[in-house]
Write a structure and sequence with these properties.
The structure is a homodimer. Chain A is of the alpha/beta class. Helix content of chain A is about 35%, strand content about 15%. Chain A folds into two domains: about 130 residues, Aspartate Aminotransferase, domain 1, CATH 3.90.1150.10; about 250 residues, Type I PLP-dependent aspartate aminotransferase-like (Major domain) (Aspartate Aminotransferase, domain 2), CATH 3.40.640.10. At the A-B interface, helix 2, helix 3, helix 5, helix 6 and helix 9 of A face helix 2, helix 3, helix 5, helix 6 and helix 9 of B. Chains A, B: Its EC number is 3.7.1.3.
């Protein structure tokens, strides 16, 4: 059994805060600061350029990939870590289009995270003669046909937490001869995922949400056996070359997912991510999922009992959700500011979604109840009407 | 006058090492470790998601860009920091091809850094019907004609240090109706650069070499006024959107270089880079260049007097070089290993180049002489014949 008291003790959490936004930026793992300082002083500082060899820096994109792989059902050697999620989306999309040259449609859905759609638009702008289709999420299955080169979906909707049926949609895409890319931004570390068992062609995700790798920490990409040695990354960087240090003038992709590496790896970010993954080494994903459902069900029950004006925007069936719960409320932006000012941190997504993440690694049931209590106070006393909560700031 | 004793004191340098490889990975700025720890504890740890607003994280890609801009002659607001250099090369190339739709040639040179060529090859593989031409560096000017959409050159050759004539080649490209991309990987922080005065359309560079931002620290991109509001980044990420937090389903590029931002910025890496740039705030580039020439001329004189078997591979005229000096030696790989084992760190580039970087921020004349003395010993006593120096390792 996963010991969640133990994992909670592995984080530095500010006192008095109920943190329901670990689905946006995970908190600081207690060991991360020293881990980064050690890499800076003992590796970068002491070894200088030699550290690329003596400290194993070059092996990290795939070594960290293997550790993430365990959490998403990816075998060793099939996941690479680096760049940002948008870059990894682009690599997957560009590869998929080349593997289905006769087809001109990228199929996504209208609920996908905008950056995924933008990357598709950017690629289409460059290539011309392609089309991005974005039906409503519930209409995706019916929209998969033989025009479609690649289906690109985010498993868990960033606003509502609604979860796509990954195995069913993957099978449907394959039956139509299309490839499929799964964006696991809100899945990795949130729900059990089985990319290999589910026959995903590509999967991508980020590490700064549930995985707690730190602000802007690197992304990951998985290549399934269907594409591992055929995919052309488009972003053909030297680290993805079969022999990066041969300085060959011609690009020749490395075998498997190693080809999806691009430029020089971000070693300081890797040090923080590695410390974050140490926590995950303690975790069984089935335990995590059970605990996530307990916490989110409790929150829904508390909020619905206390705040009748809020409308559940997430699926009521916990198996149809990721690890977040959203409520609609017309004054949701200001209400979220009022909540944050009182130490309960969630976030807001336009036009009216108040979003709360449930992260069993460090969240307790008492905190979940406390969050609902403060939310009740904000709504009941109309604290959101106060002018200081109506000032608009960017949030991520 | 720049005080190089003062800048040297701002680095943590391992005792007993003569570091002539700051052109590959700059050393650790003394303040960087604490700066990163502070961002981790006080910003990420304490502020959590709020730090994107309360700690100014969102402003950093352009704020850091402005600080680099001063070193390369770029006005405020024209440089963005993020991703890796290969990614920035791709954005510049893809933008340039779209701005010259009737032309099918990317012109580079055979001495360019392989990753730049690979990115061009990857882009061409995706687009089809384009051609990458790589004449010898000295033949580039003559190869610029009206087939050429974009000229992509690295100002300072990574092997020999040979410097292209940036203003002349830029003028020539423009006269032929082509755009030009300058890769400043071995220029930024090495030599005075004037991207705006020289009418560069695009410039890109990395920050882990002469700028000392740390292993795999983020890259930068400059857009000249000729392309600032026309360039389409291809990698159309949400951070480059005109209103990233509107979560608009359609991409609309931000004005100017802000559109070249892609994904969520790497905040820990930025903290280290910012500490590294604090050192540069003390530096006048003309002083730096004068000192760089003094150090490299002294090294050449010492090595040529002591090691007649080594052949200078860099231009003899210091104004035709960047801030590195290379020598050819048939047993160069093993000789470099022997040198490193004796505390003098340079690097090797196939087939026979021993490469030495001269970085006035922290390098003294005494160290330069010491480096030449040890090199003399390695060559004279054939220390490179020892088996332990012949084992091949990757180096970057």
């Amino acid at each position: 059994m996963t010991d969640f008291e133990r994992t909670r003790a592995m984080f530095d959490l500010p006192k008095g805060i109920v943190y329901l936004d670990g689905n946006s930026l995970g908190p600081l793992p207690r060991a991360a600061t020293d881990a980064v300082a050690r890499v800076m002083r003992d590796e970068w500082g002491h070894e200088l350029i030699r550290a690329w060899n003596t400290c194993g820096w070059m092996a990290q994109p795939l070594a960290l990939g293997d550790r993430i792989g365990r959490l998403i059902g990816a075998p060793p050697g099939t996941v690479a870590v680096g760049d940002t999620l948008s870059i990894k989306v682009y690599q997957a999309l560009a590869s998929a289009l080349r593997l289905r040259p006769g087809r001109r449609v990228i199929l996504s859905d209208s609920g996908n995270f905008p950056s995924d759609l933008y990357m598709a638009q950017g690629l289409i702008g460059l290539l011309g003669d392609r089309e991005l289709r974005t039906p409503a999420p519930e209409d995706v299955a019916a929209a998969i046909n033989e025009d479609v080169a690649v289906v690109m979906l985010t498993e868990v909707d960033y606003r509502t937490g609604r979860r796509h049926d990954m195995p069913a949609l993957t099978a449907r895409a394959h039956a139509a001869g299309a490839l499929i890319i799964w964006d696991l931004a809100h899945s990795a570390g949130a729900v059990p995922v089985d990319v290999a068992g589910g026959n995903a062609d590509f999967a991508v995700g980020c590490t700064y949400k549930y995985l707690n790798g730190g602000p802007g920490s690197p992304a990951f990409i998985y290549l399934g056996p269907s594409v591992a040695d055929q995919a052309r990354p488009a972003l053909a960087g030297w680290l993805g070359h079969d022999a990066p240090f041969a300085f060959d003038p011609d690009y020749r992709p490395a075998g498997g997912v190693a080809r999806m590496r691009v430029g020089t790896p971000p070693i300081l970010a890797y040090a923080a991510l590695s410390a974050a993954l140490d926590v995950w080494d303690e975790v069984d994903m089935a335990d995590l999922r059970a605990r996530s459902i307990e916490l989110s069900e409790r929150f829904i029950a508390e909020v619905e009992a206390r705040c009748p004006d809020l409308e559940l925007a997430s699926p009521r069936d916990p198996h149809a959700r990721g690890s977040q719960v959203s409520f609609r409320f017309a004054d949701g932006y200001a209400a979220m500011q009022a909540l944050i000012a009182r130490g309960v941190i969630g976030d807001f997504r336009a036009p009216d979604i108040m979003r709360f993440g449930f992260t069993p690694l460090y969240l307790t049931e008492a905190e979940v109840v406390r969050g609902a209590e403060v939310l009740e106070e904000v709504i009941r006393d109309r604290l959101y009407d106060r002018p200081e909560h109506r000032r608009v700031e960017a949030v991520t």
